[in-house]
Amino acid sequence: MGNLLAIARFEFGQRFKRISTHVYFVIFAALAALWMCMAGGVFRNASVSFGTEKVFINSPFALAQTVAVLGFLGVVIIAAVTGRSVQQDFEYQSFHFFFTSPIRKSDYFLGRYLAAIAICLYIFASVMVGIWIGTHWPGVEASRVGPWSLRAMVQPYLVNLLPNLIFLGGAFFGLAALTRRMMPVYVAGIIVLVGYLAATRLIADMDNRTIAALLDPIGSSAMSLMARYWTAAEKNTQMIPFRDELLWNRAIWTFIGLGIMAFCYARFSMSQFQSEGKGRKEDHASKGAKPASGTATIPSVTQDSSAAAYLRQLPGLVALYTRETVKNVYFLVIVFTGVFFIFVNATVIGSIYGTNTYPVTYQVLDFVSGLFSLFMLIVTAFYAGELVWRERDARVAQLTDSTPIPSWLPFIAKLLTLFAVQALMQVVVMVCGLLVQLFKGYTNFELNQYIYRLFALQLPSYWMIAALALFIHVVVNNKYLGHFLVVLYYIAEIAATAMGYNLRLYLYGEEPGVVYSDMNGYGHFIPAIRWFQSYWAMAALLLLIASLLLWVRGVDDGSKARLAIARARFTAPLKAITIAAALAFVALGGWIFYNTNVLNIYRTEFAQEELQAVYERQFKPLQAKPQPKITAVKVAVDVFPHEHRIRFKGTDTVANKSSEPISDVYVLLMETATIHELNASLGWKETEAHPELNWHQFKLSQPLQPGASMTVDFDLEYAPQGFANDGASKLVLDNGTFMNSIFLPHFGYAEAFELAQDSDRKKHGLAPKERMPDLDNVAARQRNYISYDGDWIDFDATVSTDADQIALAPGYLQREWTENGRRYFHYTMDRPILNFYAFLSARYEVKRDAWHPQGENVPIEIYYNKGHEYDLESMDQSVKDSLDYYTKNFSPYQHHQVRILEFPRYMQFAQSFPNTIPFSESIGFIAKVDPADPKDIDYPYYVTAHEVAHQWWAHQVIGAYTQGATLMSETLAQYSALMVMKKKYGDAKMKRFLKYELDNYLRSRGVERKKELPLYRVENQGYIHYRKGSLAMYELQDVIGEENVNRALANYIKKVAFQDPPYTISRELLAEFRAVTPEDKQYLIADLFESIVLFENRAIEASAKKVGDGWEVTFKVEAKKLKADEAGVQNEVPMDDWVDIGVLGKDDKPLFLEKRRIKSGQWTYTVRVSEEPKRAGIDPIDKLIDRRPEDNVVPVKTES
Amino acid sequence: MQLTISNMSKRYSNGVQALDNVSLSVAPGMFGLLGPNGAGKSTLMRTLATLQEADGGSAKLDDIDVLKDKDRVRRLLGYLPQDFGVYPKVSAEDMLDHFARLKGVTDSRQRKATVDALLERTNLAAVRKQKLGGFSGGMRQRFGIAQALIGNPRLIIVDEPTAGLDPEERVRFLNLLAGIGRDAVVILSTHIVDDVADLCPNFAIISKGRVQLTGSPAEAVTSIKGKIWRRAVPREELESIQKALPVISSRLQSGETVVRAFADHAPEGGFESVEPELEDVYFSVVTGHLNPAPLQAAA
Question: How far is CA B266 from CA A941, B242, B249, B281, B284, in A?
Fold first, then answer.
């Protein structure tokens, strides 16, 4: 024991004296402080948030997260400190002294281990120091800092860091002791990293949550899981409870870590001298017998030391180095870890509502190469160092350096080796991708797509990183510093983008991204990428020349000597190449700058926000002025798919619907619109303009009188010039153009252009702002929430496109013709529609069907991309089922056609326009719904039903621009789709769907930025109007009956459909609900729509005994109801509600399910069931909003 | 071939003057470079082997400027560094073949013939397929000289090759060296006097970065004839004698401490004259008791 402490003390003292220890301390303190400053809003371009800005940056939750994140970065430090604390003895050969001294193995092993752990603890104590400094930094907003709590500061260390240290430190230390090398330690570190990343990915899938939480070696996923439904108020006050998944996670990993350490301890021997015994034996075997030396004369040879001769050696050398690298066990471990990571995650490729997509090539490629890119970076950084140091590490550098090889030979061979290794990794990616497809039973292998993406598109970018890594290693000429700088480069690039700096011209190796779409392929996005790649290739070439000049041959005599050598090596041909490369670099950079910053507008995020702020400051006062409203649109749209150009030429009819004359008209156009014509029939003159905003003010020659109309002729063109920082424009595509009415002229002040988030507004000196006008704001009822410059309009569009494409717009096709090699389509709408429409053009296949209710004929057309036939039947059926249900229960369908139009996956949504539903290729056209899998949800069917429902809920009933508006569109569309789905798939399947809705709602309310509102005041918040909306409407129909709900909706439609201003508000809908709700259930309307109610119901115990043929089940439950305020503070309220109690049998089959009126408190029920009961409790199939639904039932104990 | 080093100097960034105005003239044949640890031998060797820059001075191999025209030097060079490693998992044969390639032997038959001959010559033919990681110290040194001899080098630099070898291996290694072509310039740096005495017709003593003496071992020994005195001393007197007299070495011989001193006349206290050895020259020079200037002039 004395020895142990002496060893620990000595080691600790040694380490503590070392500068690196304190450097780590300072780095982590600085990181923590920086993190806090970002969270506290010090940097104008960047912010970190713990879910929402209402969570204090020093709240228990924030502290736990911060310590976990930094602790995660700290894995590197733990590896370095614990591994080195034993490996150093082998590296410096000092183990001889320790192993031969009279100390026990346990003293040495544990003493070193304890010292290393203590050092790590010291280093990580810096995190709290940094947090404290960060929160007190000038510029941190006082409102972001809450009260300090000692417990909250200590707990993350006890729960997170200390177990990690014991476990990781133990494993790392053990590995280093056993193998006497650092490499296994780093590889183990990579495996830990992968475990963490796999966990963070898996946890997104509801079904894998527990596994994911346990799988995460760092424990932060488990912590997130514990707090996943917490509101800001809870995050600010509660400690993360140390139980369930978190407790298990910590226990499991501590056990594993100690297990590895115990194993290594058992195998570790202080007397064993590795690898030397063998050599000695062979030595003796070959010694003695032979004469002193051979007598062979050495034949003379011809040496060819010409450059050409050495050039011929290049392939051989590359092959040699490559073989060495890939045969290396660590390389294999890293690659296999990557492969493992891919296959673990492959189960959830493209999952939506727990349902997979077909593993089409682009998706698998995105997925596999995305996951593998991390490993690519690791391997690149690592082997750049290994290759540069290859000879020196093996101590043969003096031998090879004094041979007559030219210096460029090993350098270029190493560069090519690194390139080859990267290419090999891409081959691994390709094989993984093909295997993933094969395992999923998908055999449409598109090898050309693989090869193009992996080798033609990605590999050149990886090569540029390889060149940089090599350059760094050569220049700094210190392996560890080199690794550190390469990693620093990776982090810096990510950080720059995160901090809002993203001008790719100045970020080495950066290029615009490209999204592959089955519809549009790589579109026209490749040339911009190639320009950037050429530009960076020239930079890489310059770096490589510099590396070649500075390549260390022989002894490194310091920078002066290296520069002198470099000058000598800088021969005339090399100079010429350098000058050429530099000129090309500058020229390409200039060309890119011309494209991104001259032809196109580049703005940082902050500058873009500032422009919006300028708009608001300058023009907001004009919002009160009456403006003309659009009453009719007649437009000719010319789409030029391959020129990526579109022209809108047409006439708006506008009317003065106000009571005063209008003499000034304000027009806001999209920034990139070119105006060829913009004239009013009354005549007008531009009096003011803001070119950057494309905002124009016109003075009419004579005022537009109340009730009077005029026409505005417009001719706008969108013709992108060159490419922008983000690549080519996505407006008009070779195949799959989708543009909506926002690209046409609009009149008046566009409130939607204002900065919405209070934090952004504050940065730009604007006062906080409500998201929507108050529910009782009468003025706001003069417009609907979709459009500010039109109510119901007449619509007529002629759309032309290339001869091989079909162009579409809302309305009915009147005529189709071809003229000058272009196809024209004339659509008219036979009744007024909302001032919201779209234009599409693509090479479509068309699936035609029709819906025939009582002799009518409503054509159904699905315009899709060839190859995307998978889900057409489901969509078609959904359209029919929806029309059946909605016409029967709500009102007649106002149009006589339904069209679904596929568009590329650059945008991922579906949107309902009159008789026209654009639908992204990624959210339904490649879904692989397995009807036999009870978990699979037919989401193409669901999305279609939802969008068809919008023909009623939005296109018949449209809410005023006030709070609660989306209750009448999104929530009711959600309800409608749910009912159609329920009819087809049954109640049980709905439960599965609602589970996702509940999870999404509960998680999202925890990250609400401003305030959670009850449904009737929803401010266009998706998690409320979709997710909570689904739950509330489903509960409502469950309690008062589907037919009553539908009766209320039908009545509501009768009253408000197609109404002119003032538009309807949510109170009117609730009144209809109240009218159909029995007296004893009236409370429900208030609970579901007018408040935020949650339950904490749970089952306490259940038992059953056999009585006759059946069982008598007795169970005790507790009922608890809570109300939350806008900030998420929850208080218990007395309960007196209708709630299910029930008994579940095998496979959760409900044996007994009845609504009972239950008050707060504990209650016991006894019921009879006919089959063997398994579980029993309150709200057993989770209909209510309950954050712990899993405790609603308990297993039934059967008494014999 | 004639190697001429003139006024070569080298100071490291930590202030150590590794070479101080070194001038040497080396003719073909074995040339011994003798000096204690840290004398600057390796720095000189590395500089001649093109692996390090000198601060000043020059070195010429016939008309080739060693410091500037490194490529030409490397084509003529065979170098065995003091401290080198091997790739543990590569066989001796493969490694030699690799070096032969690096030395520009492009013809594979020639390469094979050379490698075979070198393996035979260095008595490694039997272990040609064996991984280098399993080689003993002696085998490794022999492998080292084998790689140095690839391509008939005209300048062979062998830095401390016998350090750490057992006597048998050392003899074997010296024999090997002795067989190297007579027309090449072979510089053998060592701190073991016997290596030089056994092998080298010419040698230099280098100490504290300076060449203290050059010449042939025989001349050197002759020059101190009659000036070396020996006496056995009791242990307790050793210190005072070392202070009082020009003692150049003291060593244990059959349990007695025997000191040797350098003096023109017998020191007081029972010293007897002994026949000088090269080792006495070496110790006299490195202890500073022999002023080598006249000798240098003679050489």
Answer: 116, 15, 16, 17, 16
